[in-house]
Amino acid sequence: MEYYRPFIVFILLISVVILVILGMYYGGNARSITLEDTTDFILYQMKVTLNSIYHKITGEDLFYIPPLSEKKKFKYILLKEIRFPQIFGAIIVGITLSACGLMLQTLFKNLLASPYTTGISSGVLFAVTLVIFVNSIANLFKIFNIDEKIVAGWCGGILSLIILIIIALRVKDVNGVLIVALLFSYLFRGISSYLIANGKELSILEYYMFIVGSLTRVNLNNLPSLTIITLIFVISSVFLIKPLNALLFGESYARSFGLDVKKVRIAILLLTSFVVGAIVPYLGLMAFVGIAAPYMARSVIKTSDHRWLLPTTMLLGVILMLIAHIISVKYWVPIYYLYGINHPAQILPVGSILDIVGGLLVIYLVYKGEKSIKIQ
């Protein structure tokens, strides 16, 4: 099986490319945009990007790019400003939250560990809930000249991180850390539920769209910051591969090889809290991808070696997100229009589709004979 792992990763990469093209094509209700328009747009953007880089280095153009017709220009604006950011958001979530789930599962030796169950997402959710339902707190965050939900999300992530680090330093047993973190998660959710019960109808709808996760909040202005966050996360994850592999054999074994388990534990919690606090305010909660993608990766790649498991998990997370996005915009929206339902969100949130698709896939894998996928 080891010899086929590069081939499996290659197939997953090809699948991501195909789904990106299909996502751009199906990512809206404009029927005038064809599959050819989508592929032409992708090639056009690649040429423009390469031209820009080459021009900065040499002062000359690498390609001749003919001017666009008005019709094509309109289509390209639609693809660039509406469809592309949503696809990019799906890729970001797929990479970051699935990898966070994998690292936390390895750390806690628990297949159900994820940013959601460890309280990180709940801390972010609690802070964003305060902003949505308490006007005075929302006005306080507006002084930063940034979307108040994003600032609140960072603050919630930092709060969760401080709690987790204190627990990690005081509690020796890693399962004890998970249990206490889960209890804090329920505490945050309890306070959030109280605010919802006394909230206005419009605020409840906004909260619902956030808690289930949606890609509609992503725009071109968000992309640079999301890209930087993801690059920092991916590079940091690569440096954690060896410590994660050492943790597979237990903390005692890791210590015998000179690994400072407490520092690794804090590094993983710090990294996952940072990325969840930065990503969730933009895109909402996509809790299930952090559980489903690592499980699927172990089933597909047949190893617990993070040199293979980490990239496979990221790719499967992206695939899950892109499939969920395509279903939400291609197959769910026509149902609303067919029955004349006026849905304020226009499309079903991707998080809802993700829970359904991911859940069915994991159940199928278990049913087909993956009797005991263990972290070992």
UniProtKB/TrEMBL annotation:
GO terms for biological process: siderophore-iron import into cell. GO terms for molecular function: transmembrane transporter activity. The chain crosses the membrane at residues 6-26, 87-108, 120-138, 150-171, 177-197, 218-241, 266-296, 308-327, 347-367. It is found in: Cell membrane. One of its GO terms (cellular component) is plasma membrane. Keywords: Cell membrane, Membrane, Transmembrane, Transmembrane helix, Transport. It is a multi-pass membrane protein. CDD domains: TM_ABC_iron-siderophores_like. Pfam families: FecCD (PF01032). InterPro entries: ABC_BtuC-like, ABC_transptr_permease_BtuC. Belongs to the binding-protein-dependent transport system permease family. FecCD subfamily. PANTHER family: ABC TRANSPORTER PERMEASE PROTEIN MJ0876-RELATED, FERRIC ENTEROBACTIN TRANSPORT SYSTEM PERMEASE PROTEIN. This is Iron complex transport system permease protein. It comes from Methanofervidicoccus abyssi.
